[in-house]
Amino acid sequence: MPTVDQKPPRKLRLRYPATCVSCGISLSNGAEAIWDGTTKTVTCLACFPDRGVDPGAAGASAAAEGSRRAARKVDEVRRKYGDHAAEVALEMAGRDAEATWGKGSEGESWLVGYTAREVGDGVIALHDRSPKSGGGSQSSRHS
Question: What count of other Cβ atoms lies within 10 Å of the Cβ of residue 42?
């Protein structure tokens, strides 16, 4: 447990250029990094052992969006035409979702596999992140 004089490392935006203590990469001012006030060192986000980051699942938001749209279409048909028509709509909406959103989801998954094979552990892939917030479970392009 940190004493009064010791503070735990914290994430911040650098006001001055610095060098990562782990890998030696140069970090420009404005970059996000981990500052350890006790040792007065900076660690880049790639080197900091942050276990709290969920990388997400490639194509998950596209698959979820396809399912959501199919369910909405079936509910709409059920309200207008009844249960028998909803069964037909369910089959058709499933085919449509698979042909569009499913294809996108499969493409995203394929790209992740390709990147993992070609780059390996040199990149940490974060899937379905919103460009505005930097996190979240659903990509903004699917809203």
Answer: 23
Radius of gyration of the chain, Cα coordinates, nearest whole angstrom: 23
Q: Identify residue 75 by its one-letter amino acid code.
A: D
Q: Residues 92, 96, 100, CA angle at the centre, nearest 5°?
A: 175
* CB 74, CB 92: distance < 8 Å: no
N-terminal to C-terminal alpha carbon distance within the chain: 43
Are residues 61 and 135 in contact, defined by beta-carbon separation less than 8 angstroms? no
- Is the model more confident about 46 or about 123? 46
CB hemisphere CA count around 5 (13 angstroms): 3
Give the whole-angstrom CA distance, residue 15 versus residue 28: 9
Residue 63's contacts (CB-CB under 8 Å, 6 or more residues apart) are 101, 102, 105
pLDDT tens-digit profile of 62-72? Answer: 888 888 888 99
Say whether pTM exceeds 0.85. Answer: no
